[in-house]
Design a protein that fits this description.
It is a single chain. Helices cover about 70% and strands about 0% of the residues. It has one domain: MetI-like (MetI-like fold, Orthogonal Bundle). Helix 4 runs parallel beside helix 9 and helix 6 runs antiparallel to helix 9. The radius of gyration is 24 Å and the shape is globular. With about 325 residues, the protein is mainly α.
């Protein structure tokens, strides 16, 4: 990346004995603008709390086992023993919400990582190479756009179910871990791959446009004149300057993926019982909302607040990383 332009007046002041702070980089300006965005900062704080609650708190004894049933305490109201009450089988609702949030967040993060890996590589190669390679890759993207996304994900998850069973048995035999602890994550691998392998299409076009714009800049021409190989120019000089749109799109992709997983789970095609995600809990709550409305209220509130926070954070990152905002 190029150095920030120096102000002649500041340089003169430095020569006259006034201390020069050396200027500010693009990233420091972006962080400063992000900190001034209250909605984004509050969203970041809320997301941090949710992640800590879902991934750390369940390991402490203050949270009950979400699989333990107490039929004598079914549909109990919130109390000191059960902060969110219990479900129709007497299971602690808070424990189920936190464990379900762990799976929903993992689906969003891992799937987005798969999408980023595929989309960035294909978009970068298409934008930098141009010509026939660009035309071929973009026609592949057009063909994938025409496929029914939901049906492909469902079929792929069904076909890969037998393979995940063997993978679970192999990991259990190799590591000695409890099968119940391994199965929820290996069972979600087809879902990760299916959603991530088809959700990179928009990202590839965004990266392609950014790379095409940066490929004609002076610093790229300078790198070519030095005889640097194409892969080094692309991955060490062009892509680092396109990281802004990539980060923004990734932040906005996570809530979309989580919502899609919740839709699949609501339809019975996602996470399967006895394991749960926020989508599974919302489905259970919708089926029993007349007998116990809290089963629907608590998971829905946490799910909606998480999605809103991710969207607010994505909007904040977009405003912070927008070069036009530096003029404000």
């Amino acid at each position: 990346m190029t150095r920030p332009f120096s102000d002649p007046s500041v340089s003169g002041a430095a020569r006259s004995g006034v201390a020069d702070d050396g200027g500010r980089s693009l990233w420091s300006d972006a962080v400063s603008r992000l900190r001034r965005n209250r909605a984004a900062m509050w969203s970041c704080t809320f997301l941090t709390i949710v992640v800590l609650l879902c991934f750390i708190v369940p390991f402490f004894p203050i949270i009950q086992d979400p699989a333990v049933q107490d039929l004598s305490g079914r549909n109990a109201s919130p109390s000191a023993g059960h902060w969110m009450g219990t479900d129709h089988l007497g299971r602690d609702l808070l424990a189920r919400v936190l464990h379900g949030g762990r799976i929903s967040i993992l689906v969003g993060l891992v799937t987005t990582l798969v999408s980023l890996t595929i989309g960035v590589c294909i978009g970068a190669v298409a934008g930098y190479a141009g010509g026939r390679i660009d035309a071929l890759l973009m026609r592949v993207v057009d063909v994938l756009y025409s496929l029914p996304f939901l049906i492909i994900v469902i079929l792929f998850s069904a076909l890969a179910k037998s393979h995940t069973e063997r993978l679970t048995d192999g990991i259990t035999a190799l590591t000695g871990w409890n099968r119940d602890a391994v199965a929820p994550f290996t069972g979600l691998l087809p879902l990760f791959v299916a959603i991530g392998a088809l959700s990179w299409l928009n990202l590839s076009r965004i990266v392609r446009a950014s790379v095409q714009d940066l490929a004609g800049r002076e610093f790229v021409e300078a790198a070519r004149s030095l005889g640097l190989p194409h892969h080094r120019i692309l991955f060490h000089h062009i892509l680092p300057n396109a990281v802004g749109p990539i980060v923004v799109y990734a932040t906005l992709t996570i809530p979309g993926v989580m919502l899609f997983e919740a839709t699949l789970s609501f339809l019975g095609m996602g996470v399967q019982p006895p394991y749960s995600s926020w989508g599974v809990l919302i489905k259970d709550g919708a089926d029993r909302m007349l007998s116990n409305s809290l089963l629907l209220v608590f998971p829905s509130i946490l799910f909606v607040l998480t999605l809103l926070s991710l969207n607010f954070l994505g909007d904040g990152l977009r405003d912070a990383l927008d070069p036009k905002s530096s003029r404000d």
